[in-house]
């Protein structure tokens, strides 16, 4: 059971814990009275909001889009960027930042094209036929071609049917440092941040605030026009065609 955080003692049943937000003191309710727990107390500070290295925009860019310059809301905006990035990636079923994927397993379904989960493909290090209790067999790089933007690996033969029988190590995504984030995805992320930021004083936002902001984007609250734009970036479910 989570402790209650408040500046004044709450009127609750015995056995509950309370953190006095004015001094950080932890107390427990016993016999109708609050008894302080020795060794606790001190300033109550929220942990810093982590910065995602794959975030689709930055605090500076989001503030410019929203039209503010003060640093008052920087942590909130950081959290909104994180949540917006997570929503976009979950909806599109892919990671956009350049990343190396090691020994990913795919099902062979008898087709000629293997559709990787993340793209554009920057390069393939190795592909193996992979079977349980049998040594992996390396597929010669001359036996397949890559269609980078589509995320496809075209095999000269057929990808033999099997459960997770293809093992691949590859690099895919966009180089956020040198080439920058895809402009449309960054714009969509900034739109999501601005929309949620505009509701920061609403009851919905306040109900989600515990210590520091922990906010999520619900699918139902995403405007159809944003989903339509994201559909261009969305990954197909089939792995082999």
Describe this structure in words.
The protein is α+β, with helices and mostly antiparallel strands and 241 residues long. The protein folds into 3 domains: 33 residues, no CATH class; 93 residues, Serum Albumin, Chain A, Domain 1; 73 residues, no CATH class. Helix content is 23%, strand content 28%. The chain is built from 5 helices and 13 strands. Helix 1 crosses helix 3 and helix 2 packs across helix 3. The strands form 4 sheets. Strands 1-2-3-4 form a 4-stranded mixed β-sheet, with no helix packed on it. Strands 5-11-7-8 form a 4-stranded antiparallel β-sheet, with no helix packed on it. The protein has a 3-stranded antiparallel β-sheet with strand order 6-10-9, with no helix packed on it.
């Amino acid at each position: 059971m989570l402790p209650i955080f408040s500046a004044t003692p709450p009127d609750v049943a015995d056995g509950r814990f309370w953190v006095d937000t004015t001094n950080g003191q932890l107390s427990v309710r016993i016999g109708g009275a609050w008894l302080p727990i020795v060794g606790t107390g001190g300033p109550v500070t929220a942990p810093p909001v982590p910065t995602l290295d794959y975030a689709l925009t930055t605090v500076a860019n989001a503030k410019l889009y929203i039209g503010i310059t003060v640093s008052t809301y920087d942590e909130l905006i950081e959290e909104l960027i994180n949540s917006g990035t997570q929503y976009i990636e979950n909806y599109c079923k892919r990671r956009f930042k350049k990343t190396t994927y090691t020994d990913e397993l795919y099902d062979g379904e008898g087709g000629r094209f293997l559709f990787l989960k993340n793209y554009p493909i920057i390069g393939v290090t190795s592909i193996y036929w992979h079977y349980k209790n049998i040594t992996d067999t390396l597929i010669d790089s001359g036996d397949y071609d890559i269609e980078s933007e589509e995320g496809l690996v075209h095999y000269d033969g057929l990808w033999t049917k099997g459960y997770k029988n293809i093992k691949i190590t590859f690099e895919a995504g966009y180089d956020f440092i040198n080439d920058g984030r895809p402009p449309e995805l960054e714009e969509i992320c900034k739109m999501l941040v601005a929309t949620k930021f505009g509701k920061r004083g609403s009851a919905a936002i306040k109900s989600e605030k515990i210590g520091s902001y922990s906010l999520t984007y619900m699918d139902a609250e995403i405007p159809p026009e944003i989903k339509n734009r994201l559909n261009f970036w969305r990954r197909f479910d089939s792995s082999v065609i």
